[in-house]
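Review box. Two proteins, two foldings.
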Amino acid sequence: MVNSKIKIQLESEIGELEGVIIHTPGNEVENMTPENAERALYSDILNLPVAQKEYAQLKGVLSKVTKTFEIKDLLKDILENHDVKNTLINRITSSCNAEEIKNLLTQQSPEKLASLLIEGVPIHINSLTDYLQKNYFKLDPLHNFFFTRDASSAVNDSVLINRMANKIRKRESVIMESIFDYHSSFITKTINPGNSRFFNDDIRMEGGDILVARKDILLIGTGVRT
């Protein structure tokens, strides 16, 4: 676990970086097939070794100027807390219509559970019917999680939890909200507009469209995803 704490205080897009949260692509990308690529928001499958090599270069550059935090490590840390683990499992299985795997997830170690929540939970193929299904996962892999800017946005001393345009990415926001709520490395408060009665189903936000120009100015670009 990372011992140093970071107080979230983002007042400019050009200020000095104190930390960056990243996610190195893993098996969730490897689990992509030509059949599910479009549903996963891709026009084609990714080459995992190439993606990992390029991401390692990005991480290497960032590490020279700031602290880097891997999502899977942060997630594993908070799952060490039994109450947090149960709360997160309940939220995810409920929102993803995956109640049937709740017991399976509960039995896992923090490290294994962190992997399953990101890489997905495959079905057991015991018959031809299972094999012919269009989806081989009870909990879908998070193919897009290495785009870490989208699920949450730091704004001043708070973290905005974004409801992204495609429901397949909802779990990313749930995980990021839990990390900022429970991980000891971050001092902040989360704001989830989805909990407001004024926030209807037509409202969507993604971090790539949100920019903190200065402490008192927030720019939000509206388009296909926001």
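Next protein.
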Amino acid sequence: MRGLTIAVGIVMAVGTSVGAQTIARIQVTAGQTDRIDTPVWTEVSDSLAGQLAGGFQLREAGKPVAAQFTMDKPSRLCWILSGTTKAGTTRAFELVKGQAPAGPEPVKLVKDDKALEIVIGNRKVLRYNYAPVPPPAGKNPLFTRGGFIHPLWSPDQAVLTGIHAPDHIHHMGFWMPWTHTVFEGRDVDFWNIGDGKGTVRFKEFIDQEGGPVFGRFRARHDHIDLKAPGGEKVALNEVWDVLVWNTGDKSDYWIWDFTSTQRCASDSPLQLPAYRYGGVGFRATPEWKEGLADYLTSEGKTRKDGHGTRAKWCIMFGPTTKGPEGIVFMGHPSNHEFPEPMRLWPEGDIFFNFCPVQQKNWVLEPGKDYVFRYRLYVYNGKRTAEQAEQVWQDFGNPPVVTITTERQG
């Protein structure tokens, strides 16, 4: 596994070192919302990153704060704004040069020749299947698919996703294909892959990183036109960025962020005619059946009236062998067509889809990056609409973080 490019081992300061050199000061302003254990981050310039290459500590009022850099360029410094931060208040931090001892138990990434798992303590959060997974015996081999998440576990370790459901063999836990598309004049379906026209394949990992604040991987996918003249042709390049925040080994919730960045693979655009589903999809555990499980959206809609409506977030919840569990599925204000239309099933098991093309045609043009950002808050027990709104505010309207570099004499 690759180490971090800026500071190996990341950080946890202990006390205040005599003569420690402050490199930067950071202020975090809560805004108009109370914050509770909120993930925050700030971009760090290459110059500042270079100054911290030998090691650093993050402090608040002289006390240690676990922090971690990402491997992006520019890098981001990430930490958890712990405890309660009241609306209208500001908290101050400082970045100090110096080696720091190990912090809390890190989020780990465990990879074999088929899948990568993200683990907090002894509990599994999710499994990303990068190797192709075949369908059940006797089913069309065209349903073989890699590049999806299953299982997604609750903190109680109940499995909350399902794949290869008898009614929809092509459903793959958590996945993101387009359905009704036109590429170079051909109809290509990357979702219902049994017709052999299109599919999505894992290509390679970009990076993987674990640490005291988050565990993260990035991977490339190819969306492939299988019937192109002369053989297969890649229509769309995609990068998955999956980041799981360290909420602690005893927490009753997970927070993980998903970003899909898509770009046309050639000079040909990808047309997305309006269609009722397509984009990020979630098929829940078969335990979440009609009459036992339901939805609640930010606009107060449920199973009976939610399909085709728009929302900032949607709760899916139901029973498991571990007790009641749920997920708050959140969309980001920067997403196309936010608040996005949703595909909710009024009958049957729980299926969810934020679908930006449900009501309007769209064209992905060559030379542009199209970014889709979502956050999942996965919990044990029950949550209210007010709690869901608060965790969405942390994602869609986060605290404001400002960083000021100290002048070095």
